[in-house]
Amino acid sequence: MRLSLLDRSRTHDGRPDAEGLEATIARAVHAEQVGYDRFWVAEHHAVPGIASGSPAVLLAAIGARTDRIRIGSGGVMLPLHQPLVVAEQFRVLDALHPGRVDLGLGRSLGFTPPVRRALRRDHEDGDTFEDDLRELRGYLDGTGGVTVRPATGRQVPMHVLATGRGLAVAARLGLPVVVGGPAVTSGELPDALTAYRRDFLPHHGSEPRVTISLDVLVADDGTTARELALPEAWAMARARRTGEFPPLESVAAIRDASWPDQVRRRVEAAVDRAVAGSPATVRRHLEALVQRTGADELLASSSTHDREALLASDRMLREVLA
After folding, report:
1. Any idea where the domains of the chain sit in the sequence?
2. Which end of the chain is more exposed for a tag (fewer CB within 10 A), N or C?
3. Given pLDDT bands bounded at 50, 70 and 90, which one contains residue 124?
């Protein structure tokens, strides 16, 4: 069972955005030290609560500060990029950090209409995701219409961030999948993964592979762990009200704020969805999840306002699943 981290470079209320990037790099260094297998970063555009919109740039910085841990994107939003440019970016990363780079690919077009307009994706162009994946893979494996430089002689592994039809696309292309969000708790997920494995068409000997992504926070006791989950849950509830995903606030500031009934219900539901508890509780929950899904890898996508507590949670999670 592989264990990895996804960090979204969360910003903090009243603090410079750059601190979010610095914290991501520090977390990656710590993840390598305590024995994680991979460290993933995300792509979000014009979001107040997230500092990174460029996975390739951030991964170059992380790779320069680490030595062994695999680094990857969770993920590059392929509809926003030309496949050739993505191939070139990740070939450069692979040349700089040989054999350590993974390319996770999603299909999100941006959260809001202004962002989609800025990305030139505010009109319907048709779904070309599967074709773009094929084209991108051709550039990376040397079978494309042009030769991508730098040539390294290595393949950059591709992963599909699968929601809805993404599982079927990944199966047809013989690619591994990363499943996260509401799909993880859906009662339909085991059947969907069974279909993915059944319909999988191997590509150069590939095999079906499933990574499950979810929020996991570990502390000495359940009450403390749930407090760590509160800032992200609060941000999600605020985003539902305002349409804008905000920076993280401290637990103390959140407790002092006004809690309308609807916000309270949303916050409590979000905290309940997170795997937040003592080491023994988290271990039981994750063992049940792996049994239900047959996951090959767990990707912890958690965040909290207290960055030292987040590092402690990462260390405890690694110990739980060691």
Report:
1. 2-217+277-320
2. C
3. low
